[in-house]
Amino acid sequence: MAQAELPAGCTARPIDPDTDLPAVQHLVNTCERALDGTAATDAGALAAVLARPGLDPAADTLLVHTGDGRLVGWAWTDRRTDADVHPEHRGRGLGTALLRWIEQRARERGTAELAQIVPDRDTAATALLTAHGFRTDVTSWLLAIDLADLPADLPPAPEGLTVRPFRAGDPADEQAAHRLTEDAFDEWQQRRKDFDEWAANTVRRPTFAADRSPLAFADGHLVGAALALDLPDTGEGYVETVAVHAGHRHRGIARHLLRHTFHACRTAGLRSCTLWTHSATGALDLYLKAGMTVRHSSTVLKKTLA
After folding, report:
1. CA triple 289-274-141, angle to 5 deg
2. 34 backbone dihedrals φ, ψ, rounded to 5°
3. How far apart are CA 70 and CA 99, in angstroms?
4. pTM for the complete prediction?
5. Which helix (H) or strand (E) holds 237?
6. Torsions phi, psi of 23, nearest 5?
């Protein structure tokens, strides 16, 4: 089993999903605030990581504590990987120790390639990974729109389209949205998510905002969806997924669904709405034409393991 070589005074153990999530969220949010001034990761996102198919929390996660019991670092790995080090404990070799543990554990798992998303603003993390043989893959962008600038009224729906909010807890809506989004993303994602994994990140997530998640229908069939989350600590709306059936693209459906979400967020008293996209999807122009602007970017770094 992979063992971490830690700085003096630190200890390591796997995460306990039943008791450690609040401390991990606090650590991740602290790192986010240090980098961006705001915290975006909610407990549901971390729970979804631990529920990834094939990830064993007892073997594929690591928490690092100081001698007084303070959580100062954590990491996980399966098909992807991630790690965080408390801002006050950087520059002491902890990030390098976590990276070595990640690579050792990945080799034990038989992982052929590691992938980690790193904010471009985090130059220290980028330098660390690059020095250890990681290479640049795709670019991701966080886009935002100022909701105060929205037109007062929604534009009419594209011809032949009806739009309504997602019905929270409705199995029919859940299953239809799962099929739609996985079919739409088959063009670029490495694998399809089964319903449980997909739902844990979207409609079964505690922060799922059904009233801000419009569905578009043509002839009674779901052809488009924008699934939103409520991140109350940010003062912003967030769109987790935008998907349109391949046979109904280039009709303005995605842009119309975004407008519904933006207006719902403004009605809820939010100041802005954000979403992530990356270069493999080819969707950046869509969001720019919808009035969004790039706030910052991240890069997916990959390493092939011998």
Report:
1. 70
2. -65, -30
3. 20
4. 0.84
5. strand 236-244
6. -70, -40
Per DSSP bridges, beta strands 71-77 and 221-231 are: unpaired
pLDDT of 53 reads 85
71-77: strand order across its sheet: 11-13, 61-65, 71-77, 81-85
Chunked into runs of 10 residues, the chain (306 residues) has average pLDDT values of 78 96 96 88 89 92 95 93 95 94 94 93 94 94 94 89 96 98 84 90 94 97 97 89 94 96 96 92 91 94 91
Count CB neighbours of 20 within 10 A. 20
d(CA 199, CA 96): 34
Query: CA 112, CA 94: separation in Å to the nearest integer?
Result: 24
* DSSP string of 35-88, one letter each residue: HHSS----HHHHHHHHTSTT--HHHHEEEEE-TTS-EEEEEEESSSEEEEE-GG
- Residue 10, pLDDT score: 93
* CA 221/CA 200 separation, integer angstroms: 24
Per-residue pLDDT, 1: 56
Cα 294 from Cα 287, distance rounded (Å)? 9
With vertex at residue 80, the alpha carbon angle to CA 51 and CA 246, rounded to the nearest 5 degrees, is 85
Give residues with Cβ within 8 angstroms of 8, minimum separation 6.
none
Amino acid (one-letter) located at 134: F
